[in-house]
């Protein structure tokens, strides 16, 4: 098929800065794209890179879009190189959006995990988000000194109501010794009869280059470990699977690469996957959640509880973004 191609860069400020072990993030930048078929049907996609996580840079994505002709084809889209995984996701999602038979979501409705602010601010926020219906929460660690984070963690495990699940996300920011400390403590919390919360897993405790050490940690503790930065792209995902990773894979559709290739890999291997947001707009989120609905085989909450990080009217904002150009 042939499509008319248009795109718009965007900037969107967070309500408060997103703080991880990688640093402080204030503004979400990306690209909204539109494909229009020869019959006039339009479909939308989003390119939302996170270069420090493993995708291309926004500059590279912008350059790629500027270099494309105004008319492109399916062949153009399927020939996007692997070093532009966010572009692969954005264009291919828009292309598949033209076709009614794209996905058949499974019958299990998705539940959502809410992203808490780092540090002490999580203590109040978790209560507010619980009232909004969230039952699974993710808290960033490896941001402050471990002694302080352990103090906050103790308070957090006491504040969360019964049946809450907590995920700890280190973004690869722990040392091997710190990872052992956290996992030992998580095992202790999960074994406790007094604390109401369950620690579902620790996400990416060690840097990407320490895969073997993370395999060792899996054998030493009962608390599960999830890979995140280590499986940012499809090639990394396939490589870690081949090397024997049998626990959880956190998949960010917005930066992982080709949706069709991801679908094939997940269906062939039936991995334990948690699908997660890259703080994209509703366009990228809808496309990512379609994949999550089809490919989530273990009924884990998806990591898309992030709307509270923005305070704009998203629908109006997207309309203005397109109409103002």
TrEMBL record:
A Pfam cross-reference name: MR_MLE_C
EC number(s) given by UniProt: 4.2.1.113
UniProt-listed GO biological process terms: menaquinone biosynthetic process; phylloquinone biosynthetic process
Signal peptide boundaries: none
Reaction catalysed by this enzyme: (1R,6R)-6-hydroxy-2-succinyl-cyclohexa-2,4-diene-1-carboxylate = 2-succinylbenzoate + H2O
Record-annotated Mandelate racemase/muconate lactonizing enzyme C-terminal domain positions: 119-224
Cofactor: a divalent metal cation
SUPFAM superfamilies referenced in this protein's UniProt entry, alphabetically: Enolase C-terminal domain-like (SSF51604), Enolase N-terminal domain-like (SSF54826)
Presence of keyword Metal-binding: yes
Active site as annotated: 140, 252
Binding site for Mg(2+): 169, 203, 228
Domain of life: Bacteria
Family matches, as Gene3D superfamilies: Enolase-like C-terminal domain, Enolase-like, N-terminal domain
Keyword tRNA processing: no
UniProt pathway annotation: Cofactor biosynthesis; phylloquinone biosynthesis; Quinol/quinone metabolism; 1,4-dihydroxy-2-naphthoate biosynthesis; 1,4-dihydroxy-2-naphthoate from chorismate: step 4/7
One example GO MF annotation: O-succinylbenzoate synthase activity
Cross-referenced InterPro entries: Enolase-like_C_sf (IPR036849), Enolase-like_N (IPR029017), Enolase_C-like (IPR029065), Mandelate_racemase_C (IPR013342), OSB_synthase_MenC1 (IPR010196), OSBS_N (IPR041338)
Coiled-coil positions: none
Family the UniProt entry places it in: Belongs to the mandelate racemase/muconate lactonizing enzyme family. MenC type 1 subfamily.
Protein name, per record: o-succinylbenzoate synthase
């Amino acid at each position: 098929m042939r499509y008319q191609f248009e795109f718009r860069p965007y900037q969107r400020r967070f309500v408060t800065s997103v703080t991880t072990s990688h640093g402080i993030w204030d503004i979400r930048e990306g690209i909204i794209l539109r494909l229009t078929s020869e019959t006039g049907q339009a479909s939308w996609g989003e390119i939302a890179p996170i270069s420090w996580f493993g995708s291309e840079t926004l500059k590279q994505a912008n350059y790629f879009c500027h270099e494309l002709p105004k008319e492109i084809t399916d062949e153009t889209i399927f020939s996007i190189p692997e070093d532009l995984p966010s572009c692969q996701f954005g264009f291919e999602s828009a292309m598949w959006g033209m076709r009614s038979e794209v996905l058949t979501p499974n019958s299990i409705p998705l539940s959502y995990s809410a992203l808490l602010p780092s540090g002490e601010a999580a203590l109040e926020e978790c209560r507010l988000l619980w009232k909004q219906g969230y039952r699974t929460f993710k808290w960033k660690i490896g941001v402050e000194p471990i002694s302080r984070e352990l103090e906050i963690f103790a308070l957090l495990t006491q504040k969360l109501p019964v049946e809450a699940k907590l995920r700890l996300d280190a973004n690869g920011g722990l040392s091997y010794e710190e990872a052992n400390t956290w996992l030992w403590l998580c095992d202790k919390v999960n074994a406790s009869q007094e604390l109401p919360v369950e620690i579902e897993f620790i996400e990416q405790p060690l840097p990407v280059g320490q895969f073997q050490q993370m395999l060792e940690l899996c054998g030493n503790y009962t608390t599960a470990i999830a890979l995140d930065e280590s499986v940012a792209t499809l090639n990394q995902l396939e490589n870690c699977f081949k090397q024997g990773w049998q626990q959880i894979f956190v998949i960010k559709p917005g930066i992982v690469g080709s949706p069709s290739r991801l679908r094939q890999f997940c269906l062939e291997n039936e991995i334990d996957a948690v699908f997660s947001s890259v703080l994209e707009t509703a366009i990228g989120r809808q496309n990512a959640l379609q994949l999550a609905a089809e490919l989530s085989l273990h009924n884990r909450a998806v990591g898309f509880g992030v709307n509270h990080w923005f305070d704009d009217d998203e629908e109006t904002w997207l309309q203005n973004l397109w109409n103002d150009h």
